[in-house]
Task: structure prediction
Amino acid sequence: MDPDDFDFEDFELPTPDDPPTPDYRATVVGSEVTVIPCNPSALFTGGPTGAIIRAREDDGVTVVDLCVSGELPDREVSVTFLARGGGRRAEKALVDWAAATGYRRIWFPARVVPLEPAGELGGARTTCPRCQAEWRDGGQRFWAGVRRRGLFPTWCMVCGGDLPQWKVRRRRRSRDSDAGKAADHGEHSLEYAADEPAKRSRD
Result:
């Protein structure tokens, strides 16, 4: 191609002022993390919405956008703060969440936290804030779904509400005991729920 035929006005490079589109938005209250797929047409950061988000800091709420990069086993997540009300406690909650869901690093604006593979974990549980249904699981298929998606199941199959990300306990009992407990609480159904966020994010 002749350089004289190239129209530089039609050629735009991304600039540092053009941040990537987030994959998820997370809210941290205390040590409880809630993550939902980020829909740019429904979730805003500027204008009146931005002021409302920043005002959440007064109540100790942290709101962040999460961008995921890479594939297992080297998947990473970067954090953009929209409200910092939870301080270091919220950052620790995000670090714990990222480690449990299979990320190798979590990038904060001023630091990077390397994450060791979580290894064998025990059960995980969460409670729906809308209908109070309690969800538990800890089987191998459940954890495979969590690691594959990079997050825990995000919606309640009883009422359809958003679930907080699950709290994890380290495995202390025998493998047979935990596997039996997971089966009693419907391991297959929760594995299906772990796949659902990817479907909802395309809507």
In short: Helices lie at 47-55, 87-100, 140-149, 175-184, 187-201. The chain has two domains: 24-114, 121-201. The radius of gyration is 19 Å. The longest strand covers residues 61-69.
